[in-house]
Design a protein that fits this description.
Elements lengths: L1 H20 E6 L2 E6 L5 E11 L2 E10 L2 E13 L1 H6 L1 H18 L3 E11 L2 E12 L4 E12 L2 E9 L2 H12 L2 E3 L2
Antiparallel strand pairs: 1-2, 2-10, 3-4, 4-5, 5-9, 6-7, 7-8, 8-9
Length: about 180
């Protein structure tokens, strides 16, 4: 009897801890749950109705001491581009645009397209490894694109060191998309 009580108390405490560390973000009626990486903070969600005549929702996760690097930025808005071009064509057009932008900025970049599933959701992923040959600074960016609940879910991870990149990538890869 005491072992059973200890088990229930342990389970309750553990579940409270797990719930406490979970972050939530609504995409229409779908709930995206993820855990913040250690030493990162969630910045306020901003809603804007200025984006292509549609409400756009923004979420950012960053390190407090480096708000412009080592970040995860999320945008959801109308899925017009995904519907009119298909997701694959849209992802390829973004891939080509990124390659051209890096080339125009005289940056050396390895940019490629990948596809993967996260919690049953299909994502197109544009990975880039960028080097500025003038100052030898290197950064990496990954853009994840999916259609979730009739919205475009666009998530960008930007980082300059593997430790932060790994933490941010795992935040997405281990997240859950809970649909009603």
């Amino acid at each position: 009897m005491i072992n059973r009580k200890i088990f229930f108390v342990f389970t309750f405490v553990f579940s409270c801890f797990q719930t406490f560390s979970q972050e939530k973000f609504e995409i229409n009626s779908t709930l995206w749950e993820f855990e913040l990486p250690e030493n990162f903070v969630r910045n306020d969600i901003v809603e804007s109705s200025e984006f292509e005549g549609d409400s756009a929702f923004f979420l950012e996760v960053s390190k407090p001491n480096s708000p412009e690097m080592n970040i995860m930025s999320v945008t959801t808005y109308s899925n017009f581009n995904l519907k009119s071009m298909t997701a694959g064509v849209y992802a390829n057009s973004l891939l080509n645009s990124m390659k051209n932008n890096f080339r125009n900025e005289n940056l050396e970049a390895d940019v490629y397209l990948d596809k993967l599933k996260i919690d049953g959701i299909s994502f197109f992923v544009i990975h880039s490894d960028v080097l500025d040959p003038h100052n030898e600074e290197r950064f990496m960016a990954s853009v994840y694109i999916a259609e979730i609940d009739d919205r475009e879910f666009n998530l960008m991870i930007l980082y300059d060191n593997d430790e932060d990149g790994f933490a941010l990538e795992n935040t997405l890869l281990n997240s859950k998309f809970i649909q009603p």
